[in-house]
Amino acid sequence: MQIFDITNRKEFMAKLLKSDLFDTFEAREVVAHMAFKMILSGERNKDYFNDIDEDTTPALSDFLAWGDIRKHVYELMSGNKLPTYFKIILSTNSEKTASLSPDASTFYLNITFKDNQISCSTGMAYKTFTLDKSSEQLWDEKIKNFLFKYQFI
């Protein structure tokens, strides 16, 4: 696990909430403290999608893509005052996870805004216990390179 302090907050938030840069991630949870506390679960409500023909449509993930809820989160969080706190938990989709490691259930990117600072932390859910941390280190390095590439750190 690595923690990265975002130095270019304005650009980071613009890319997170207004562009498709993070859209391939799955949204696990969004928590924001504003005039009220908002908790959004990224779990797909399968009953809502019950009109989809399963024979002709690929299987849906258990979680919505960030791109599917990003605009709604932006609308809820935008306004004259910044939230006092927020946390957005994103994860890799099954294809990306499989391409990174056969040992992983998923890889996480946790984005936290607290005390006027934004930080990103990495994480990994293992399928089984292992002492080998190479997959976790690979993910840490990929996120570091991603954040550096877009000049967020």
Q: Could you describe the 3D structure shown?
A:
By secondary structure, this protein is of the alpha+beta class. Helices cover 29% and strands 29% of the residues. The chain has one domain (3-149). It has helices at residues 9-18, 66-77, 94-100, 134-149, and strands at residues 3-5, 26-33, 37-41, 85-91, 104-114, 117-126. The relative contact order is 0.22. The model has no long low-confidence stretch (mean pLDDT 92).
Largest sheet: 6 strands, antiparallel
Category by helix and strand content: alpha+beta
Shape: globular
Helices and strands, in N-to-C order? EHEEHEHEEH
Amount of beta strand: 25-35%
First and last CA, distance: 17 Å
Whole-number radius of gyration? 16 Å
Q: Mean pLDDT score, rounded? A: 92
Number of strands: 6
Pfam family, one: DUF5721
Short characterization:
By secondary structure, the protein is an alpha+beta fold. The chain has helices spanning 9-18, 66-77, 94-100, 134-149, and strands at residues 3-5, 26-33, 37-41, 85-91, 104-114, 117-126.
Note the topology.
Layout: E1 3-5, H1 9-18, E2 26-33, E3 37-41, H2 66-77, E4 85-91, H3 94-100, E5 104-114, E6 117-126, H4 134-149
Antiparallel strand pairs: 1-6, 2-3, 2-4, 4-5, 5-6
Give the tags.
153 residues, alpha+beta, 4 helices, 29% helix
